[in-house]
Structure formats: C-alpha cells, structure tokens
Amino acid sequence: MSINKSKSNLSLKNKLKSLFSGNSNKSRYQSKLIRGDFDSLHDLNIAYVLKGFPTLSQTFVSNELRYLVEDGFNVVVFCYMDPADLVELDFDLEVIRFDESDDPTGKLEQLLLDYEIDIVHTHFVYPPCTEYTFPVCDRLGIPFTVFAHAVDIFKYDVDKINRVDEISKSPFCKGILTLSNYHKNHLIERGVDKDKIHITRQATDYEIEELELKERNVRNIVSISRFVEKKGIDVLIDVADILRDEDYEFSIYGFGGLEKAYQRQIDELNLDNISIKGRLDGPQEVKEVFDKADILASPCRIAENGDRDGIPTVIFEAMAYGVCVLTTEVSAIPEVIDDGRNGFIVPPDSPEIFADKIREIANLSPEERFEIAKQAQVDVQDTSSVDETMKTLFLTWSL
Q1: Does domain 6-204+384-397 have CATH number 3.40.50.300?
Q2: What is the pTM of this model?
Q3: pLDDT tens column, 45-57
C-alpha cells in the first residue's frame, strides 16, 4: 500500500500538540510528552523494547517501525534475544541488545537514559513488558505503552504471571493497545481499567489492487502460518483426507516445531492432495502465493495450554488480496469475518464442517465469490492498516 502520511499526520501532530500543552510537576525523567516542551512529535525520542527483532511472524512490528523511520521519527529498538528468524530489514534502524550484561534490567535503564528516551512502546505484555519495560519505566518515570496480543495474555500459565493489572495501574502506563473487544473483555476480567484499553488492529501493510472476476473453479487452497498447535494444521490435513477424491489441492506454507508431525500425518493418511511447501520470506512471496490461491484456510483453535490467535494477520492479507477466507469461530475472528458476507467461518476442530464449507464455496458462482471478495477488501481497508494502528498509538500517547 502506498502511504501518503504527510497531510494526515500534520493535522494529527497539531492536535496532539494542543493536547500536550501545559506543564506538570513530575520528576526530571518525565518525557517531553508529559511536560509539553517539544515542538512536534518528531522531537520525541522513541524506544521499542522487544523480545527479539526482526521476526518473520511479527511483520506488524516491522510495519510500525518502518512507518516511524520513513516519517522521520527518532526511534531505536532495544531487545534481549536473537530473533527467531533471519530477516533483513528494508529500512535503516538501530537495534541494540541489552541482555549481553550481568544486569540486563540495569543495562536497559542506562540505555533509556543515554538515549534520552521520552516514550517506550512494547509488543507483548509478557515477557518484555512484565520483566523490563514496566519496572524500568516505573523506576525512571518514563511513559510507556504496550500492545497485548494473544500468547502473552491467553496462555494459561502466562495469564497467571504477566501482571497486566499491575502494569495498567502504573501512573506511567499511557495505555494498553489490543486487537478486539474479545481481548478487551479478557483484560477487564483481569483487573485492567477499561479506560486504559484502546482497540486497534495490528499494523498491516499491503497493496490493495482492483479485483478481477475469476471464472476458474475453486481448486487451490492455501494455509500460511507457523506450525504450532493453535493454527490447527492437523485439522486441515484431516479436511484434505475427507476431500481426497475431489478436485482440490492443499498447500501448507510455514515453519515451526510441528512440521515433522504434520508430514507424518500426511504420510500415514497416504495423501497426495496436500503438501508442505515451507516458509515464505517476506510480503512479496506471500502475494505470489495469494495470486494463485482460491481459498485461504485458517483452521484456528484454542490450544490445550490456552494459547490462541488474536486475529491472524494472514486473514487481513488474504482479504486485501481478494482471496476468500475460510476460518473458525475462535477469539476475535468473528469480529472480522462475517460468514457469507466477507468470508466464511465454521466451528474449530470440525474437519467435516470445514470440508462442507469448502464445497459450499466451490458451488457459488464466480459472481457471488467476487462480491464477497470485494466486500472483504472494503472491510479490511476500514479496519486494518498501519495508518490506523499508528493513529491509535499516537492518540494513546496523548492521554
């Protein structure tokens, strides 16, 4: 997506500037954001505190940082682990490890002081915010925000130790961003003040192209995900087994610890209509897959340990590229996908129903599928973009 931020951001900056006017008697470590002694948002020194960066499965983080860098903001990343994947950034950004010290918390504290950081933003409540951003910013008096996703708040063992209620009550916590009303209700149940919660989708960045009517039959069904339990790839393999005598081809793209188990399941079922293709490196490869796809299959589920998706980014990407989405009634997905209107949705862990829905989609006319794809494009532009995410983040900093 081509982004023309200059005009919209200028009015936003002027609005924020007026909101930030005035002084307060805070400690000398309070940021310009609170003291109101800066000329524009571009005067702020912004730090992202992350676990590892960059990570292939967290393109939304890279999209936020690219937005800030390309728009001239002063931003640096402090992280405490190597990224899970080898990913090259397509923009210049300083990334500093702070765990290579006997006292990583103290090292982060010193970095925030040395770089004269005014505001800190973190993705995932646990571990990075719980263990680093929250205690360090609380001690220094630096405002911070955190984006709550899924594994960091829903996984049962993490839910007990993430201290999200304490984090939200810090006077320096400007707010908690999260993906949906489903997430918001969960956070409220954990003791977070509803006024501290701000809903926005993850920062997606894709190119909206004019759709063309596809006269071809539905045949190519793709899945793009990490190979973890909550993604439900084993269910999709069972779906392929149910449809083995019908003219569908399933392609599984991704990576992760369950790959051998999935291949073993395919081999044991003796399937030749489904194959594991490996990981996709970057948005261009994702687009190339979607160009040939008829359905994105995303059979999400709640894992035994409580982990679940928030809203998979790949669903937004498929909607943007005009690929029919077939997914499940898990977490916040029903807030995005309206069955038969902009996609299709079925109960989780239900391979027979999932297979029947594929047949239903295939039996639609090309014109009916085209109207659903167009509606999906309209909806995704209204709800999910890096512009909308950053606007919410900026406004949260102003509160």
Answers
A1: no
A2: 0.84
A3: 999 999 999 887 7
